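Researcher: For the annotation table, I need C-alpha cells for Phospholipase D-like domain-containing protein. Please keep the output clean. Sequence:
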Amino acid sequence: MTVASLLLALAWGGLAPASATDDGAERAGGTGAVGDSSESREAKPRRWKAPNGPFFNDPHRKAGRFAIEREVIRTIRHTPRRATIRIAVYSFDRMPVADALLDAHRRGVRVQMLLNDHQDTRAMQLIRAQIGTNRNKKSFIYKCKAGCRSTQNEYNNLHSKFYSFTRAGRSEDVIAVGSANMMLNAALHQWNDLYFSSGDHTLFRQFVSLFNNMKKDYDTRRPPRHFCGTAAGATCDDSVDKHTAWALPKLSGPKNDLVIDMLDRVQCLTPDGAGGVTRTRLALSMHTMRGRRGDYLAEAIRNKYAEGCDFRVSYGLIGYHTKQILGATTARGRIPLRSTGMDYNTDDDFDLNHDGEDDLILDYYSHQKYFVIQGTYNGVPDTHMVLTGSSNWASLSTANDEIWLTVQGKSVARKYVANFDYQWDHQRNSRDAYTTTYASFREARMVRQPDGTMRRTYVTTRRPVTTVERDHYRTGPYWEAD
C-alpha cells in the first residue's frame, strides 16, 4: 500500500429565501476547468469559460486522480485582478493550490480562506506568511475554532467544502460545492465530487453572506440557513427550485432530520397509466453512517426499499449496528449494499495523529456524500435530483458547519448515476458488503421405489447463506484528517 493514508472519522457524519444583502454580500463570478503543468499561471483572456456540473476524483486510476484539484486550479488561474476567491474547507495541504492562490494574490485577486483548526500544513503556512490572518483585510487565511458557526467543543468542526469566485474568465458568480478538500490523501485514496455552477447572482450572494457570517467565528451555535437563489414559489422547495442549500449546524433527530424529510417526499411506486407501476430509483454514495443517527437513517432507507424503491447504497465506512439495521431482510429481500472501503494491508495501522492509539489506514474509500433521486418526488413524476455537499449521514454531522446542496436536472443526475455505476459495477472499485458462505443442509425427499411405493430418504445439499458481518476494520472513534 502507498502510505498516503487517512484517519477515518466518526460521523461528520420550506423557509423563505435568505436575504441577499446579509453580511455585506457582494457581486461576484467565476469558474474553472482542468489545468496542466504547461498552462500559464497568469489569468487567461475573458473568452475562457468556467466548468459546469459535477467533477469526480477516481483514486484507482492515475488519470482520475487530481481531477477535481485541476478544475479548482484552473479556476483560480483564470480569476482576474480585483476579483475575489473565497474558500471554506475542512483540510488543506496541496502546494499546487497554494501556489495558484499566491499567484492570484500577487496579481491583485482578493483571497479569503476559512479552515478547520485541526492541522497546520506547509500550504497553510506559506499562504499565511503572504496574506496574514486579519479577517478585516481584503485577503486572509483563518482557522475557525471548533467550527465557525458551531458551539466550540471537542467534537464540532468546520466541515464545509465550498469554493466561490466572483469572476473567472468570462464566467461570473461561480460556486463549487461537494465532498472535496484540497488534500493529497483526497486525490490518491478517496472518491470525491465537486459540483460547479455559475451565473446565479442571488444564490452566489447568499453563499457570500454565509461565508461572511462564518468568518466571525462564533462561540455558540448559530441558526441554520436555508436559501435557494430566487425561489420559484413563496419559499424554497427542492422539488422545483434548481438549487437549494442548507447551511448547518442544525439540531436533528428522528422527527426533525433533513434526510428523513427528503425520504418522506419520495414516492416509490407510481402508476404508469398502462396498468403497471414505475419504481423510483435511488442511489446513495455515503462516506460514513454510524451512531444513533446512522441507525435511524438506516431504518428509513431500508423502509424505502421495502416500499418498492429501487434503492442502492454504497458506503466507505459504516458502524456495525447501523449496517445490521440497513442490511436486515425485508419482504423484498435485502437492500443492495456495497462498500468502497478497500484495505489491502490490515497490519499497517499506526498512530498517525499521535494520540497514543493506532489509527485505521485504508487504501481506497468513498468520501462522497451524494444521493440521487430519479422518479416521483413530492408528487412530481420524473424528478431528477441530486443532493451533495459535506454532510455525512452520521451522529456528529448535524452539529458541524456543513453544506447541503440539492440540484435539479436530468443531465446532472445522470452524471452522478454514471459515477455511482462506475464504482458499483467494477470489483476493483467496490465489494459486496454482505458475506456469503455455503452451508450443508439435510433435506428429506420422497423417492419412488421399484415396486411403486414411495420412501422417504435424506440428501445433503449446499446452499448459499447471506449474513451481515462486521467490516474488517477496528471500531472506535477515528479522527478524520481528510
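Researcher: And a one-line annotation?
Model: Residues 1-44, 348-353, 474-481 have pLDDT under 50 and may be disordered.
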